[in-house]
Write a structure and sequence with these properties.
Elements: H1 5-36, H2 38-59, H3 65-88, E1 110-111, E2 114-115, H4 117-130, H5 162-178, E3 187-191, H6 198-211, E4 216-220, H7 221-232, H8 238-250, E5 253-259, H9 266-281, E6 285-290, H10 294-300, H11 303-312, E7 313-317, H12 323-337
Parallel strand pairs: 3-6, 3-7, 4-5, 5-6
Antiparallel strand pairs: 1-2
This protein binds adenosine-5'-triphosphate and magnesium ion.
Amino acid sequence: MSLDGKLLARARDRLETIRRENEADTRRRRETVYARNPKIREIERSLQETMISAMGAALSGCDAREALAAVKEENIDLQEQRVLELTRMGLPMDYLDDRYSCPDCHDTGSQGTKICHCLMELYREEQAKDLSALLKLGEETFDSFDLSYYSDSVNPATGMSPRQVMETAFETCLVYANKFSPDTSPSLFLSGAPGLGKTFLSACIAREVAAKGYSVVYETAVAALAKYESERFGRGDPEELRGDIRRLESCDLLILDDLGTEYPSVFTVTALYTLLNSRLVNRKKTVISSNLSMRDLELRYNPAIMSRINGDYSLVKFEGSDIRRLRRERRLTKQDDR
Ligand SMILES: Nc1ncnc2c1ncn2[C@@H]1O[C@H](COP(=O)(O)OP(=O)(O)OP(=O)(O)O)[C@@H](O)[C@H]1O
Ligand SMILES: [Mg+2]
């Protein structure tokens, strides 16, 4: 699983802020208690001194046992005094202890060599924010995908109704999302006319795969290819553009939406080749959605691109009537009924 460096850095920054806030909170609690009861400050100072003495005794080598035992006893005694004072003030005995948002890593973000679950949670939140252009309303889930929008009258040419075709498309996307593995999953090519739910199902896949902790990036083909163009022609911040291109080429799953809506030029075709080829070389998966059929693709792109799409992408066909239009009509019918 490759984590996105930019998102991980953002997650670490947030954890650092949480850690600092907890520290500031502990300082504030201490100051308030010291102001009300200066004796507690003295006890805590003495406690620190006992720690230093304990270390000195341990390092002194020759027969430190007796000295250590004395220090330990003094330490326990001081701790008891502190508990007594706090209880007198009506405060819990651990009131002055350091507090951590994550008890497992003490807000450091790692447990040994492993990333702590709390940092992964923040990472997932950053990823969801990053995908917000795609998941904007948050209503697109596999559960809310409505098959009744697709007609069940059989197309004599294919012997299948749009609903049957879409049942297969839905099932394919659902299984893909649930079983996603960067090693074994294929890439997908979602093909069909406008308004049939391609972006909808891409969003569902993105949400599920991101929730498993994989790095997922959503970009329209126009925006993705424009990054290559800007980088090539020195427009914009080169460092940032290179970072964006790296993410496009190396995230675990790229959702490349609306392929074919970009301006057709030698440059965009070359950029698309670079993007798709880099993802193949990096062994990363891509979900492309497009209004273009395989035939249209052949006319538009070069054999090198087609060979990669034909070889590594599973075709998922979308059929039916434009749901944007159907929804508009349903709304109008409702208004007329009133
Ligand atoms: N099966 C469905 N159930 C409920 N709403 C749907 C369904 N499919 C699509 N929609 C809704 O219809 C609208 C169009 O869907 P979407 O944007 O996914 O189409 P598209 O195939 O990506 O179209 P385009 O090719 O124009 O990008 C969206 O508002 C989407 O939420
Ligand atoms: Mg779309």
